[in-house]
Design goal:
Two copies of one chain form a homodimer. By secondary structure, chain A is of the alpha/beta class. Chain A contains eleven helices and 16 strands.
Chain lengths: 309, 309
Amino acid sequence: MIDALLLGTGGMSPLPDRWLSALLVRCRGELILFDCGEGTQIVWRCFGWGFRRLGAICISHTHADHIAGLPGLLHSIANAGRTEPVALYGPPGTAAVVAGLRTIAPWLPYVLTVREVTSGETFPLPGGLTGRVEEGRHALPVLAYRLDLPRARPFSPERARAIGVPLDRWRRLQQGEPVRWIGGMAAPDDVLGPPRRGLSLGYVTDTRPVPAFPAFFHGVDLLVSEGSYGNPDDGEKAVINTHMTFREAATLAREADARRLWLTHFSPGMADPEAFAAEATTIFPATTVGFSGLQTTLNFDDEPDIEPS
Amino acid sequence: MIDALLLGTGGMSPLPDRWLSALLVRCRGELILFDCGEGTQIVWRCFGWGFRRLGAICISHTHADHIAGLPGLLHSIANAGRTEPVALYGPPGTAAVVAGLRTIAPWLPYVLTVREVTSGETFPLPGGLTGRVEEGRHALPVLAYRLDLPRARPFSPERARAIGVPLDRWRRLQQGEPVRWIGGMAAPDDVLGPPRRGLSLGYVTDTRPVPAFPAFFHGVDLLVSEGSYGNPDDGEKAVINTHMTFREAATLAREADARRLWLTHFSPGMADPEAFAAEATTIFPATTVGFSGLQTTLNFDDEPDIEPS
């Protein structure tokens, strides 16, 4: 399962009543953060997820409202006792920005690696997740992220027993390896059912919708998307400032065949984003207008764990 | 008069219920900020003082909890429409740190000048204030600041009339210039009373008390001083971490003959600083344990504006 926690929902400036947009993801006890504006570490402390297990930071782009909180967070991870490496991902140009910000976080008790990634790259993330990115279109390079948690094929103990596989060979079969024993052999296909759907999550902000997105986010369990403007009259602003309206985010969720959509990154000029909920739900009903503290757990579909015989 | 507003009182890490230590000063409508940790611009928005009139930023030292909020603030000043220069003061090393942080605030509609200062230097600040600094003792270079607002000598209209000074010469006499007119002349001393006490404010944080401080802060109307530790049992921690206890801050206020003391920069381990108020007030009664939003106005002493004849 994957836990997701929306820390904030603001764009441009952190406000007393709206933390900047950031998303925290937890899988197998390991944490991944998406974006880190000023104040992210403050609101983080409200939810008890701790800093020590943060293994990766995925930065959409290097505008201040998405990265200014990094040095403070790096200190808080250190104060929490982390010594294992932390990996930071971002678009081209990220390394220079991180180096600049680290003038106030020069010594850390863990290694911070910075990897600049571009469309099509995949990389391993903490908790057994796989990350992928797709470039968006904004005032400077921006990345949309997709996380995938694969699910193993179902294992049939009945078939394994029928073939006579010794118990100590079951794990290797489950892991997809053929096994032999005195008097017999078995291949994974003999005991494993069909591939199963895993879990996936998409995060996209500070970009216009680009043609690659629906395929990139295809079938995600949860799409966390910016919706800078709820009011449909702000469509031109969205184009000029290279952001998205609620309608555009909902259209992306529908075209991607996502299961759920969370809206975030609201313009400071939009005092009550919830008032524009219908702009999204009429296009994509499973939309939630985000708020700080919005949480969910993505579970594998409720399939039987043992293939029906 | 000088207005002072304590924005936050925390040391080390910004917490959901305690903003990082920072002080805002207003004189003749112009603003000066002391320290700018992560979140300073957020709490600032709660008090309606606006960003546009910020003319100077005085940084005590370049630890993250005193400067990490700078890039976000620089953007907010820009968004507020400022185009006049902003001057930033700090100890040696500040310019390199500011340059690093400006990787995420590279283009601003105003000029930001950085001036590294050391003990004994004075410099003009917005609102007619004069700034001075004294070096403290911490893990890296740190400055204590003093602001002075001079007060003009009292002008006696009675004397001016008796001497026959034409009205259009009064202002120059008030400004300390001798004047002549057809049939007469007057020197400032003919019409001005004795020098009068001005207003002054001290700001000191992240340092041990050093011998120069009592003289440096002598007679200030308000001393805003760190008191990282209220519990007198933490005296050793204060020495090791080069901070001050409430007692040490109160002793400094007493030795400096300050009029009032505000305590700030509380250790995150001190949940209720107010509980230790007596540690300071027994030494220096006019102590206030600081909180976000603590405000005061420093007024000139209530002397008659016209010298008694």
